[in-house]
Design brief:
This protein is mostly helical. About 70% of the residues lie in helices and about 0% in strands. The radius of gyration is 20 Å and the shape is globular. It folds into two domains: about 120 residues, no CATH class; about 190 residues, no CATH class. One of its GO terms (cellular component) is mitochondrial inner membrane. Keywords: Electron transport, Membrane, Mitochondrion, Mitochondrion inner membrane, NAD, Respiratory chain, Signal, Translocase, Transmembrane, Transmembrane helix, Transport, Ubiquinone.
Length: about 350
């Protein structure tokens, strides 16, 4: 069943990113949604079932809105081609539909809850692979998107992604708000430079995968369990600090590269004030990344903790985790080649 779900995910993504017709793109998105549902609900826990239900309802509503927008466009213009979306109402509806699928503010409420109810590996899929088809549709229709609405949502996402993550103790929720913040950075530049959006997305996927795989190795789901994880693999916990700071976008780590290039591109386009605002808003996110890094390396848990003691049992770290962490920390010097 897991193999069928994963193959369906690959099929749905491939159909969406390679289609020219709106009906095919919608079909790919629906296959993706139906394929991820068994993976979310697999633990048979009430939270997992709740997460799967929320995910299904939101994605079905967004897909319906997307189909409605392209049908409206076909009614007025006679075009079903993805790149020929010209009717203003259709453009507005499409921007809303894809933003809902991605989890941009103000359509973000479902994402932290769904990620919190999923396992770490399913959460990794939701935060990375499931974002790829909607972002591809954004890239294909970028000339006809409602840019004012998109810019407002991007800045709001960068602000809320940092602000809402401040008072969280669940690591998956923190990473969900981190994803919302990074999506804001991707969508602010999507009209001007497609390659920059894709570089930002690929680097975000790489850094997020490194963190999720590290958390899976140390079995950390909360800040308190992260504090005690140093007893298992001390070196991995120390490197986790650098990985988190890279995701925050601190130089000279890899995560600084997309933010640097996006600010540079926005300045070239004469949007200096927008670049300044979004750069300042990223400082909010930096605070909770620093808190995570602090918990991972410096603090010790209280002795009267109400969680199970964790002992140094598993010392093996797979090659993929090691490779991703290395790239997450050291890729900035190679940026001219990228």
């Amino acid at each position: 069943a897991k193999l069928i779900s994963i193959l369906s995910l690959l099929l749905g993504t491939t159909i969406t990113i390679s289609s020219n017709h709106w009906a095919m793109a919608w079909t790919g998105l629906e296959i993706n949604t139906l394929a991820i549902l068994p993976l979310i609900s697999k633990p048979h826990h009430p939270r997992a079932i709740e997460a799967a239900t929320k995910y299904f309802l939101v994605q079905a509503a967004a897909s319906t809105l997307l189909l409605f927008s392209c049908t409206t466009n076909a009614l007025f213009t006679g075009q079903w081609d993805i790149t020929q979306l010209t009717h203003p109402i259709s453009c507005l509806l499409l921007t809303t539909a894809i933003s809902t699928k991605l989890g941009l503010v103000p359509f973000h409420f479902w994402f932290p809850e769904v990620l919190q109810g999923s396992s770490l590996m399913t959460g990794l899929l939701l935060a990375t692979a499931m974002k790829f088809p909607p972002i591809t549709l954004f890239l294909l229709t970028s000339s006809s998107l409602n840019y004012t609405l998109l810019t407002i949502m991007a800045i709001a996402s960068a602000a809320l992604g940092g602000w809402a993550g401040l008072n969280q103790t669940q690591i998956r929720k923190i990473l969900a708000f981190s994803s919302i913040s990074h999506l804001g950075w991707m969508t602010i530049i999507i009209i001007y430079n497609h390659k920059l959006t894709l570089i930002t997305f690929y680097l975000y996927c790489m850094m997020t995968a490194a963190i999720f795989l590290t958390l899976k190795t140390t079995k950390s789901l909360k800040l308190s369990s992260m504090m005690a994880a140093w007893t298992k693999i001390p070196s991995l916990n120390a490197i986790l600090m650098l990985t988190l700071l890279s995701l925050a976008g601190l130089p000279p780590l890899t995560g600084f590269l997309p933010k640097w290039l996006i600010i540079q591109e926005l300045t070239k386009q004469g949007m200096t004030s927008t670049a300044t605002i979004i750069a300042l808003l990223s400082l909010l996110g930096l605070f909770f990344y620093l808190r995570l890094a602090y918990c991972a390396t410096i603090t010790l848990p209280p002795n009267s903790a109400n969680y199970m003691k964790q002992w140094q049992t598993n010392k093996s770290v797979n090659t993929l985790t090691t490779t991703l962490i290395t790239l997450t920390i050291t890729l900035l010097p190679l940026s001219p080649m990228i």
